[in-house]
Amino acid sequence: MALFSRRSPAATPLDDVDLVLADLDGVVYAGPHALPYAVDSLNRSAQSRRLAFITNNASRRDAVVAAHLRELGLRTEPGDVVTSPQAAVRLLRERVTPGARILVIGGDGLTYEVEKAGFVVVRSADDAPAAVVQGFAPELGWADLAEAAYALALPEEEGGIPWIATNTDWTIPQARGIAPGNGTLVSAVHTAVGRLATVAGKPETPIFEEAVARFGAERPLFIGDRLDTDIAGAQASGIRSALVLTGIDRPKHVLAAPTSSRPDYILGDLRELHEPYPEVTTAGDVTTVGGARVQVDGADVRILEEGDRPIDLVRAGAAAIWSTGRAIYGFRVPERLYADPFHRP
C-alpha cells in the first residue's frame, strides 16, 4: 500500500492516476452544499485526467446528480456519474428475465434505471414481482417496507424471488448532521423476513466494476469518506484509495481500521490530492511522517513529536499501529493521537 511504500518526496496521490473516482456525500458535498476546497481541488485534478463520480445514493438520477455538481462548479455530465441503481440493474439483468415485473422500494433514481432497462415497475407484492430492488429515498415509509417484506416472505432457496439492495450504508451525512441511510431500511426488512439482500453498491464490487469498464481506466484512484464502504470496496476491487476526513469516518476510526479497509492515502481535505504525500519511515519502534513521530512500546502508543500538521500525526499513528498486525484494542492510545480538528458536516 502506498501509505507504507518508499516514494519520491515529490509524488502526490494523483501521480500516475488516469481516472479519479470520487464519492459524493461527505467528499464533494454535505446536503446541498459543497465541502470546503472540494470543487476547486477536483476541477484541478480533471485538467490532466478523467474525473468521474460514484455514489451509493439511489434517490436521484444520474442527470440530477450531474446538474447538482454543475451548480457547485464541477464540469460534470450524466455519463460521468455511476450510481448504485445502475449497478443494481446490472445484477437484475443476470437474475431475472427481460421485461419482468420488479417491485421497486425506492425513489425516482432507482425507478428510472429499472424502467430504462426495460423492466416493469410495480409497487405491491400482490403484483407478483420477479424481484425486489430496494434503495434509499427520504419519502419511504412503513407501508413501502411492508410490501417488500410481503414479497420476500419465501426464502430464495425455497423458490422465493431475488432481493437486491442498492447499498447498505448505515448513515448519510447531511447539512444538519448524520442521518439514517439505506442500510437501516434494508435491516428493517431483514428483521421481518430473516433474509439477506444481494448488495450492488459499495462496498461490493459491481459498482466499481461498472465504473472502471465505463471509463476504460487502468490506474484509477477512488476517494471516499467511509472505511467500511468506500475504502473496503475499492480495496476489494483492486483500486487504490484515499480517505478524506470531511465526512463520516474520523481519525479514531482510521487508527482502528481492519486490514480489509485501510486506505492508501489519508487526507485532511482534497487540497492534499495535489500536495507531496510524505514518506513513512520506520526506525526500530518509531514511525515518522513529516514532523510527526509515534512510538509503539509494547501496549503503549506514544507521541514523541506532534509535528506541525495534524494530518501527519494521524498518518504516523495509523502506520505505526497497522504495521504491528495487532488490533487497536490491544493498545493504550493517547487521546491526542485521535484528536479531530478536521472539517466535517
Task: Write up what this structure looks like.
The structure is a single chain. By secondary structure, this protein is an alpha/beta fold. The chain folds into three domains: 2-80 and 203-274, 3-Layer(aba) Sandwich (Rossmann fold); 85-199, Rossmann fold (3-Layer(aba) Sandwich), CATH 3.40.50.1000; 280-338, no CATH class. It is built from ten helices and 19 strands. It has helices spanning 38-45, 62-72, 84-95, 108-116, 142-151, 182-193, 206-215, 227-236, 251-255, 310-324; strands spanning 19-22, 29-30, 33-34, 50-55, 81-83, 101-105, 120-122, 131-134, 163-165, 171-174, 177-180, 198-199, 220-224, 240-244, 265-267, 280-283, 286-289, 292-297, 300-305. Strand 14 (240-244), helix 9 and strand 15 (265-267) form a beta-alpha-beta unit. It is globular and about 65 Å long.
Largest sheet properties: 6 strands, parallel
Name of the CATH architecture of the largest domain: 3-Layer(aba) Sandwich
CATH class category label of the largest domain: Alpha Beta
Instruction: Give the topology string: H per helix, E per strand.
Output: EEEHEHEHEHEEHEEEHEHEHEHEEEEEH
Q: Termini, distance in Å?
A: 29 Å
Q: What's the total helix number?
A: 10
If strands are numbered along the chain, what order do they take across the biggest sheet? 5-4-1-13-14-15
